[in-house]
């Protein structure tokens, strides 16, 4: 059955029922006393802001706001992304943005653009992916919008919450170490396999494809960094090289990366021995966290993070936004165009 056979309002009813019936818990918002008073299905969602155990004058609570859009033919194709994985990924990018500030995801609004011949079963699978990641990360979907469109697009507006001050891009300082919270390049390795039509049957292939289809935002790690007084951070969504350049530009500084220090998973290295460094530098959607801090602080917090966390470079004075990559011999590595650019 297709959307055009049911009409907008009956389709919305199906999705609203899915969201209400499959919520597994109240979510992160209630821990911060953002108590939902008007749920999915009204003109807007509403919540009241009360006092919580996390709020104090010394440690104020902050609300975080972010939005992101995925467009068919630009960010995904139906040949490489299932509807359920698309639902997961559409929320993962927003959850990762909140994680990069040290926050927890709370409420989300979903806007869908859909061709009128979209199958109801496909739409249910899309929302199942959203429900899966929402339940895992304590997020509640509280409404949205739906419009007819020649291609599929999904816009997510997400509200996060945190105690303390958010980590930001502008707080890097000369002499800081540059570190990442996990392995780089796995998602782009999985996409490369799918685009090349590989069998995806070996251990490395299954691992890499899953890394692309179901990326996992670093929410707990973001909280660890914020609790450890890290103040400069962002997520790696467009590729390490480009994202570090953005952080440096915001802080009016430059950076060096050492390619031999990049954390590359053994399964990525074994499957793409010649391309793994390029995938680690330029691959997007890993959603690990990139952060900087004094050597003592960074080296200490690295010990608290999972496997793959590593120091990869240094912050220094120089042309704002300039990132230079060196190999083990001290030679500058030409890396060309890196990362994702909508208009590049």
CATH architecture of the largest domain: 2-Layer Sandwich
- Poorly predicted runs are none
Shape from CA axes? globular
Beginning-to-end CA distance, first to last residue: 39 Å
CATH topology of the largest domain: 60s Ribosomal Protein L30, Chain: A
| Number of individual domains | 2
The tally of strands reads: 12
Tell me the helix content: 25-40%
Q: What portion of residues belong to β-strands?
A: 15-25%
CATH-level-4 superfamily name of the largest domain: PurM-like, N-terminal domain
For the biggest sheet, the summary is: 6 strands, mixed
The radius of gyration over CA amounts to 21 Å
Mean pLDDT: 88
- How many helical stretches? 12
Describe the protein in words.
The protein is α+β, with helices and mostly antiparallel strands and 344 residues long. The protein folds into 2 domains: 3-163, PurM-like, N-terminal domain (60s Ribosomal Protein L30, Chain: A), CATH 3.30.1330.10; 169-326, PurM-like C-terminal domain (Phosphoribosyl-aminoimidazole Synthetase, Chain A, domain 2). It contains 12 helices and 12 strands. The strands form 3 sheets. A 6-stranded mixed beta sheet has the order 8-10-7-11-9-12, with helices on both faces. Strands 3-6-4-5 form a 4-stranded mixed beta sheet. β4, α5 (120-137) and β5 form a beta-alpha-beta unit. The protein is globular and about 65 Å long. The mean pLDDT is 88.
């Amino acid at each position: 059955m297709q959307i055009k056979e049911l009409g907008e309002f009956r389709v919305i009813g199906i999705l609203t029922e899915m969201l209400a019936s499959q919520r597994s818990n109240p979510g992160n918002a209630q821990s911060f006393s953002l108590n939902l008073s008007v749920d999915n299905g009204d003109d807007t969602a509403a919540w009241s802001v009360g006092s919580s155990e996390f709020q104090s004058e010394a440690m104020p609570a902050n609300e975080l706001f972010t939005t992101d859009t995925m467009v068919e033919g630009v960010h995904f194709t139906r040949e490489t992304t299932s509807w359920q994985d698309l639902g997961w990924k559409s929320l993962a990018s927003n959850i990762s943005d909140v994680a990069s500030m040290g926050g927890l995801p709370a409420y989300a609004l979903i806007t869908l653009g859909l061709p009128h011949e979209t199958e109801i079963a496909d739409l249910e699978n899309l929302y199942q992916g959203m429900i899966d990641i929402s339940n895992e990360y304590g997020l509640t979907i509280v409404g949205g919008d739906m419009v007819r469109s020649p291609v599929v697009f999904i816009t997510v507006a997400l509200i996060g919450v945190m105690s303390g001050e958010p980590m930001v891009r502008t707080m890097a300082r000369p002499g800081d170490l540059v570190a990442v919270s996990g392995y780089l390049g796995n998602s782009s390795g999985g996409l490369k396999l799918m685009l090349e039509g590989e069998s995806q049957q070996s251990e490395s292939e299954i691992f890499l494809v899953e890394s692309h289809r179901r990326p996992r935002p670093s929410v707990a790690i973001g909280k660890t960094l914020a609790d450890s007084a890290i103040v400069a951070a962002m997520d790696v969504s467009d590729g390490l090289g480009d994202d570090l350049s953005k952080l440096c530009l915001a802080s009016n500084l430059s950076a060096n990366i050492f390619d031999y220090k990049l954390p590359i998973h053994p399964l990525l290295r074994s499957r793409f021995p010649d391309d793994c460094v390029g995938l680690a530098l330029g691959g997007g959607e890993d959603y690990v966290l990139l952060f900087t801090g004094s050597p003592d602080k960074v080296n200490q917090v690295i010990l608290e993070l999972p496997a793959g966390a590593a120091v990869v470079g240094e912050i220094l004075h120089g042309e704002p936004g300039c990132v230079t990559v060196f190999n083990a011999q001290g030679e500058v590595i030409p890396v060309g165009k890196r990362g994702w650019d909508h208009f590049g």
